[in-house]
Amino acid sequence: MTSFVSYECRDGLAIVTIDNPPVNALSHVVRAGLIDAVHAVEEDAAVRAVVLRCAGRTFAAGADIRELGQPPQAPILPEVIEAIEGARVPWIAAIHGTALGGGLELALGCHARIADPGTKLGLPEVSLGTIPGAGGTVRLSRLVPIADAVELVTSGKPIDADRALKIGLVDRIAEGDLLEAAEALARELLTHPMPTPLVDRPCPDAETVDWNSTATALARKARGAQAPLEALEAVRESISLSGRDALRKERERFLRLVASEEAAALRYAFFSERNAGKSLAAIKAEPADLSHVGVVGGGTMGAGIAVALLLSGTAVSLLERDEATVAAARQRVLETLQASAARGAITLTQADDALERLTATHDYVSLSACPLVIEAVFEDVDVKKQVFAQLDAVMPPEAVLATNTSYLDVDALAETTADPARVLGLHFFAPAHVMKLLEIVRGKRTNDRALATGSALAKRLKKIAVVSGVCHGFIGNRILAAYRRDCEFMLLEGALPAQIDSAIKAFGFPMGIFAVQDLSGLDIAWAQRRAARATRDRSQPYCHISDRLCELGRLGRKATKGWYDYSTGEPQTDPAVTRIIEDERVRTASTVRGFSDGEIIRRIIRVMQQEGEALLAEGIAESAADIDVVMVSGYGFPRHRGGPMYMSGSEALQATDAP
């Protein structure tokens, strides 16, 4: 045994415990300890059954990700699981917390499984660009209905204990103490013949799955990522072969995928998110109390922020202008909660509990009891300055004030208060209760307590925090504005909106840049351009196409026309837009040529990289990895490609003629 795996025997029952905090990752030392435990059991004639459990807050939550892509060290996980599966006595997995990836594969190698009620179980390997590599596809597909196996392996999403029991992934849910329940199950198993190992069980009927339509739907959802499709094929292959042959094939596929560029990019994305906003960890100041937070503005964004806070257990005071807008804001929060419940993200009870923590008001004084207030009114600097002046008049000096702005100068807003040090930016992404990214904007005078509060809020809301300095658009919107501007210049040079959007989607973005503008509304950026007109550098090129669309009232989906025509419901290319583009080409005497999809993508990524390099040089972003986190988590950059900064100079960027 090692210090990471302990073994004890009492009354013929062995208890094998993994203790590798914080998540009991199945690292080399743990695997070695488990093999030693198997040998000890086999040599101890007094042992009649084994309970495998984990100390701490979770069962084995998966492999040690730091070992992925490295030369494997024996014993590898498949060997450990095969040793347990082939043991002379039954092993029972006592599962709590999470059993993910290799952790669930370990449990599948046992002869029975019992779980705590709150347990989550899943095979998330596709999120790291690979598939289960220790028998997950083989054993799972011989234990649960094949459609459920396909869903678990290809989606990577975990399921709860109740669903696991329903589909047969676990044999029992523990009532009371998990270890005692596992011991009882072990003794019950001893009254029956030794269970047949999963790998030796018969294959299910593959005809219950329409493999072709499943692959088509999966490819559409994967947006260019290959791991989900490989996972589907692995399940299909596993039930067409004997268990032993299927294990060998699965391992070959796993090793090929784990060495792929996609897997490397996804590992980079994983660690980049884990390390995002690194400077926040060094702050020693105590954050403000987040049990009660004020939100000013009950529009779409303000209501979304309020919902995110309410679902985290925070009481919210939501402020609007008058009785009518207060009622509308409350209704907006209610509808957002109901929609979340309807799609299964929360329960109706959770929605009701959240709504009880909401107070809607039009009295600024009622916010004075909130240690943190987040302003989320219309994106207009004068309106926001008025809000901050009113907050400054009623809030106690220790309260932290935050602005949810996408572009505006946080320092200028802070200067409207008596103490700019307590002001920071908190740039949420819509919908705020769903999107995982939060840009924490550090003003030139923002103090550590305000930053600590932003960091604590991100953790409370389970969001990824990235720190940005103050500039127009911060990290994400500055890059977005740069590549959107260049896409419009490509229109002058010969491309068309539909071609650019098609290339962007083929690369892996959920939407093209022109479709995104139509969805958010062209008037927002138009207002910003008009506001900046007086200070615009006239020596720099400027594309007027978007301005001309706005002047014609083509403001996007809400006006039924923008870059596309939505009058029939679905976006259609519009000859009127093409004529405007052609007119501008003539007016600017542009040289027109053809573009390949690969050229479009390379140009977009290079613009992103150039703007990212400028953000780093100016000290706005703290690291290239932070920039990638922002673009992946907030702007739809395909996660399986790592991010624009990750792709800098890579072979993947050079090979984008076939995105």
From TrEMBL:
Residues 292-468 form the 3-hydroxyacyl-CoA dehydrogenase NAD binding domain. Residues 473-566 form the 3-hydroxyacyl-CoA dehydrogenase C-terminal domain. Pfam families: 3HCDH (PF00725), 3HCDH_N (PF02737), ECH_1 (PF00378). Keywords: Fatty acid metabolism, Isomerase, Lipid degradation, Lipid metabolism, Lyase, Multifunctional enzyme, NAD, Oxidoreductase, Peroxisome. GO terms for biological process: fatty acid beta-oxidation. Pathway: Lipid metabolism; fatty acid beta-oxidation. InterPro entries: 3-OHacyl-CoA_DH_NAD-bd (IPR006176), 3HC_DH_C (IPR006108), 6-PGluconate_DH-like_C_sf (IPR008927), ClpP/crotonase-like_dom_sf (IPR029045), Enoyl-CoA_hyd/isom_CS (IPR018376), Enoyl-CoA_hydra/iso (IPR001753), NAD(P)-bd_dom_sf (IPR036291). It catalyses: a (3S)-3-hydroxyacyl-CoA + NAD(+) = a 3-oxoacyl-CoA + NADH + H(+). GO terms for molecular function: (3S)-3-hydroxyacyl-CoA dehydrogenase (NAD+) activity; enoyl-CoA hydratase activity; isomerase activity; NAD+ binding. It is found in: Peroxisome. Its main location: other. In the N-terminal section; belongs to the enoyl-CoA hydratase/isomerase family. This is 3-hydroxyacyl-CoA dehydrogenase. It comes from Sinorhizobium saheli.
